[in-house]
Amino acid sequence: MSLPRYVARRLGQSVFTLLGVVTITFLLVNAAPGDPVRIFIGPSADASAIAAMRAQFGLDQPIHIRYIKYLMNVVQGDLGQSINYRVPVTQKILERLPATLLLVASSFTFAIITAVPIGVLSAQRRNQLSDHVFRIFGLIGVSTPSFWIGLLLIIILTYHLGLLPATGLVMPWAPPSAVDHATTRLDVLYQSGIHLIMPTLTLGTLQMAAIMRIERSSMLEVLNQEYVSLARAFGVSERTILRKHAFRNAQLPVLTVIGLNLTTALGGSVLTETVFSINGIGTLIITGVNARDYPLVLGTTLFYASLFVIGVLITDILYAYLDPRISYGDES
Amino acid sequence: MSDTPLLKVENLKTQFFTEAGTVRAVDGVSFTVERGEIVGLVGESGAGKSVAVRSILRLIDSPGHIVGGEITFDGKTVVGFEDEPGTDGEPTRREEMLTNTEMRSQIRGSEIALIFQDPMESLNPVFTVGGQLRELIELNRGLSKQAARDRAIEILREVGIPQPAERFDDYPHQFSGGMRQRVLIAMALGCEPKLIVADEPTTALDVTVEGQILDLVYDLQDKYDASFLWVTHDMGIVAEICDRVNVMYLGEVVERASVDDLFYNPQHPYTEALLNSIPRPDQSTEDLQPLEGAMPEPINPPSGCRFHDRCPEAREVCQRTHPDLRTVTEAGQYAACLKHDAFEAAYETSRPLTDESPAAGGDRRE
Ligand SMILES: Nc1ncnc2c1ncn2[C@@H]1O[C@H](COP(=O)(O)OP(=O)(O)OP(=O)(O)O)[C@@H](O)[C@H]1O
Ligand code: SF4
Ligand SMILES: [Mg+2]
Q1: Do B57 and A225 touch (CB under 8 A)?
Q2: Which residue of A83, A108, B209, B258 pairs with B205 in a disulfide if CB–CB is 3.0 to 4.6 A?
Q3: For residue A326, which residues of chain B lie inside 8 Å, CB to CB?
Q4: SS3 assignment for A231-247
């Protein structure tokens, strides 16, 4: 099967996944106590204003009608109006997306570029002191809640040492006039950098620890394979064995972990964004839930689910690229 | 120089230091391989054959260590220790012993190549078959990438891979087991080493393919003028291709002979037992006497002769006295068995261990 056909088929299959996500979220949001209109207008509102607004958002209709209408809109790319913000949900998502993407990208870049070499080194120096240190670090890393790391960083680096800002993000491409303490492009980049450090560590430490652990165990397993012994027996140097003969094979499980973590970290950024008051999608979801803003909650959830589906698909494609034994969908 | 053996292994000792104790996997093994010769190393599973051949390439991984003995190859000292241990009690390397880097650049692959046992696990699944072969030839023969590629295709043809140029870029999973074993042989031959060590390369294959592979090796040995050390537990293979044979039991060589002497005039009861356990055209199946019991663990080998608890000819003296490998016949056949006069062990007057003694490991002769 060719790659484009494989991708098309997988995307076709994911329509059902997404339909499931929409349905379940739709039911959950509607089952939750609280009324978006009352929350929006406030407790002192009169009955006619409430009725008018309910009609405006179609909330006066029975749930199955609303469900079908919603689906038809989604198919046309319309995620509806946010009740709270009074703008289209898509617009709100697009507005918040860059901050979240920047945070996730920065965290994973940090996690991957540190974890992969450390994992390899740890495997190479198995049971030596450095390996033990890395492993203990990894264990602490995977078992520490990220918001706790965030709070700890803020207490130390902001309150005690006053080194780094604890709130918000600065987009590196923002115009200098829109950024505090910035007059030149370089200032913007600097501000962007110092704002990113703590959120990156907060979201990235867990990822780093997870990748490091899988990298180490995966490398160890590959280094024990017979084909590595063969390379050694034919005079291939340890360096080449590590870099060429073992590395590529060992990345298969690592890739899976990165792919899955990447997609769940998008959701996981909710905590980090809250701790650092970052206006990303994570905080958007929180606002949506608090305001019982049905369209907003549904829209962001659907958006995340799509990212997840695409993430898994890309992981699978990369996997097939790295491992010639896997071909696209030959099982059919 | 040419009158010294190509490979000389003397009193080699390789041990694994495990939590359960010291595993004496290879315990004082000596043998030689002359130029142009095919020498067999036979013995049951666990006898220490693989550990012995991997020691020759110094490919023993922790917790294993070569703790004693000498290995010389083509004038180079692969393993050599001072007689006196160092102050820490560890054996001290002699000056002329090759360093790890020298082993890698001067011996492994280029001078001694190993044919691996498992054709399914020994090729890297994520690289092409041709690419892997080319890399080893390039490295060990110092050829350019293109020249190594041409050579790789040529050698794939020689080992019987049809359409080698087309199959060059295939991955291992696209090859059958027999084909992969041919590739492993091509790897060894392509590096043009002086010695090829084959560690049971046909065990994983079915009998027809095994036959083809043996024929192939026989043909190519002439052409490449390589010497072989052939590890197997199959006496049939020994008869087919070997010139001389070393029989191993529990970390020791217990008999050494030319193939003819070994088959027609075995001097060690263990060799006899091995020969009796293979079907032969001149014997009916009732004559088959499979060796009873299992080989003990090398972690705590039996006292005296290590074979005494399974030996049909064991006597009391065998429990006490450990026989070394000695010349036992006029023709210069070697065996490590006290029943031979060369040992002057009072074997004749010693009480037999079979039947009446529980230490004999049960009654095996009716
Ligand atoms: N890494 C290791 N750690 C501990 N013991 C080992 C190790 N490798 C080998 N041994 C022991 O050394 C002994 C000899 O093993 P070896 O693999 O050389 O046997 P073999 O004669 O090649 O057998 P086979 O025919 O099954 O390949 C065995 O008892 C084995 O348990
Ligand atoms: S020394 Fe004794 S036990 Fe050992 S092989 Fe000879 S007869 Fe058997
Ligand atoms: Mg073996």
Answers
A1: no
A2: B209
A3: none
A4: HHHCCCCHHHHHHHHHH
Whole-angstrom distance, CA of residue A62 vs CA of residue B246? 89
Q: Which of A222, A228, A234 to mutate to test the interface with B (most CBs of B within 10 A)?
A: A234
The tokens describing A21, both together, are 């996500």
Average pLDDT over residues A146-167: 90
Stretch A141-150: mean pLDDT: 88
Please, are residues B129 and B183 in contact by the beta-carbon 8 Å criterion?
A: yes
Residues 6+ apart with CB under 8 A from A99: A169, A171, A273, A278, A279, A280, A281
Q: How many CA atoms lie within 13 A of B123 on its CB side?
A: 31
Q: Is B121 within 8 Å of A323 when comparing Cβ atoms? A: no
Q: Report the C-alpha gap between B72 and B231 in whole angstroms.
A: 19
What 3-state DSSP class applies to A315? helix
Q: Which two tokens stand for residue A246?
A: 């073992």
Q: Is the pLDDT of residue A331 over 60?
A: no
Residues on B contacting A at a C-beta cutoff of 8 Å: 57, 59, 104-105, 107-110, 113-114, 116, 118, 121-127, 135-136, 139-140, 171, 173, 184, 187, 191
Distance CA A215, CA A156 (A): 31
Q: What is the pLDDT of residue B362?
A: 42
pTM of the model: 0.80
Q: Which helix (H) or strand (E) holds A135?
A: helix A129-143
Q: For residue B321, how far is its CA from the centre of ligand 2 (angstroms)?
A: 10
Task: List the domains of chain A with CATH numbers.
Answer: 96-290 (1.10.3720.10)
Dihedral sign of CA atoms B42, B47, B49, B50 in order: positive
Q: What confidence tens digit (pLDDT) does each residue in B214-246 have?
A: 888 888 888 888 899 999 988 888 988 899 999
d(CA B24, CA B221): 33
Q: What are the counts of helices (DSSP H) followed by strands (DSSP E) for chain B?
A: 11, 12
Supply the pLDDT for residue A329.
57
The strand pairing partners of B15, in sequence order, are B65
- Residue B291 CB neighbour total at 10 angstroms: 19
Nearest to B5 by CA among B52, B73, B103: B73
Confidence of residue B284 (pLDDT cuts 50, 70, 90): low
Protein residue whose Cα sits closest to atom 27 of ligand 1: B45
Q: Which phi and psi angles does B244 have, rounded to 5°?
A: -130, 160
Q: What is the pLDDT of residues B113-166, one digit of tens each?
A: 999 888 889 999 999 999 999 999 999 999 999 999 999 999 999 888 999 999
Q: How far is B89 from chain A (nearest CA, A)?
A: 23
Sign of CA dihedral A203, A204, A206, A210: positive
Q: Is residue A97 helix, strand or coil?
A: helix
State the Cα–Cα distance between residues A115 and A102, nearest whole angstrom. Answer: 19
Distances A280 to A92, A255, A292, B157 between C-alpha atoms, Å:
10, 26, 18, 62
Alpha helical stretches, state H, chain B:
49-56, 100-102, 129-141, 145-158, 164-167, 177-190, 207-224, 235-241, 259-264, 269-276, 316-320
What does the alpha-carbon distance between residue B161 and residue B167 come to, in Å, rounded to a whole number? Answer: 8
Residue having the nearest C-alpha atom to atom 22 of ligand 1: B50
